[in-house]
UniProtKB/TrEMBL annotation:
Keywords associated with the record: Lyase
Gene Ontology annotations for the cellular component aspect, listed alphabetically: endospore-forming forespore
Top-level taxon in the UniProt lineage: Bacteria
Gene3D superfamilies named among the record's database cross-references: 3.40.50.12110, 3.80.30.30
Protein name (record): Deoxyribodipyrimidine photo-lyase
MF GO annotations: 4 iron, 4 sulfur cluster binding; DNA photolyase activity; S-adenosyl-L-methionine binding
Organism, as annotated: Thermaurantimonas aggregans
């Protein structure tokens, strides 16, 4: 991340979190702005180049503290499924990431009024009076920014007080500090995205290797936290059958299928508008220039490829005893 400039919304002038973050990263300049979109939505820049100089934007969210997810967008067995956006953009740089096409710039936005997000979830909970699932911030990697703002810590503490909510914290990081000094909480699902080493090396730059992610996940698993593994996206490569089967049999060494919360799987897919934007930035990406099928605003592998990938991975998982599988297709 570019430590030279931090953009801060003027209304955060007296926010204690701002001082803590500035003390940590010691930027050489601070620029005060009216609204985070002034920077995030700048047009005409080169996204790939800007990623090398990714700036930090500190902001205050005024509304939209959560969204209801369509039943088509998730596979978890919860009737009421929501997600929120505590931060925008990511410190990592996965080649398949939709964020590259969703926002004009890669600058990292952190909303510092996390308490308003938690209050909104609490109001929702009182209205629903039923169990519900809240995925925390898929538009970033939350644990990877925990050193800047303790989102995970604050949400875990909230979840401990409200048995109706189940929160999911998904990451590709190897960071353990946000859970290692706490007792496991039944309604907090810690979820690690993993892929075979070769896939990660090729398509997931800046992320810790899957081996260290698995180590962090297995630590949480051993401690008794509900742990989910996400093999998503499954990437179609010439030797994917052998690559994914070997990878999955290795997972069995670290996780007890009975105690694991589940394994979520899904194949490469993307909103078509985002795909068009990203292809403009990545004319040389074999992964993104695959001749995807398009339907209802989404691009994905042809049906027979999707079926083969899902079947291969599902069969390999079942062979190792992993039966709680959530399939996104
Ligand atoms: S870790 Fe997730 S959010 Fe971050 S770049 Fe990779 S796919 Fe995108």
């Amino acid at each position: 991340m570019n430590k030279r400039i931090v953009y801060i919304e003027r209304q955060l002038l007296n926010h204690s979190g701002v001082r803590r973050i500035l003390d940590k990263i010691k930027p050489s300049a601070v620029e005060w702005i009216e609204h985070y979109k002034e920077v995030l939505n700048q047009r005409g820049g080169n996204w790939r180049l800007q990623k090398q100089y990714q700036s930090l934007i500190l902001a205050h969210r005024k509304d939209a503290f959560y969204y209801e997810a369509s039943p088509l967008t998730h596979s978890i067995e919860f009737k009421h499924f929501y997600y929120n956006t505590l931060a925008i953009n990511c410190l990592y740089d996965c080649e398949y990431c939709y964020l590259q096409g969703m926002f004009n710039t890669p600058h990292l936005v952190l909303f510092l009024n996390n308490n308003d997000f938690i209050k909104a979830a609490d109001t929702l909970s009182q209205r629903l009076q039923k169990p519900f699932y809240m995925a925390l911030s898929y538009d970033t990697d939350l644990p990877a920014v925990e050193h800047l703002y303790p989102y995970c810590d604050e949400w875990i503490r909230y979840a401990e007080t409200n048995p109706l909510i189940t929160i999911e914290i998904r990451t590709k990081s190897s960071i353990t500090s946000f859970f290692a000094n706490k007792n496991p909480v039944n309604n907090v699902v810690l979820s690690w995205s993993v892929n075979p080493e070769d896939i990660a090396r090729r398509f997931e730059p800046l992320t810790p290797s899957p081996a260290v992610r698995i180590k962090a996940a297995s630590q949480a698993h051993e401690m008794g936290w509900p742990v989910m593994l996400c093999i998503d996206p499954i990437v179609y490569t010439r030797d994917f059958n052998a690559v994914y089967s070997t990878f999955i049999s290795n997972l069995r060494k670290y996780f007890d299928p009975i105690r694991l919360y589940g394994i979520s799987i899904g194949t490469m897919r993307m909103n078509t508008d985002y795909l068009t934007n990203i292809r403009n930035q990545r004319p040389d990406s074999q992964l993104l220039w695959y001749p995807f099928e398009r339907k209802n605003g989404h691009a994905f592998y042809p049906k027979e490829v999707r079926q083969e990938l899902v079947e291969t991975v599902t069969n390999a998982l079942k062979k190792e005893g992993f039966n709680r599988i959530f399939v996104y297709d």
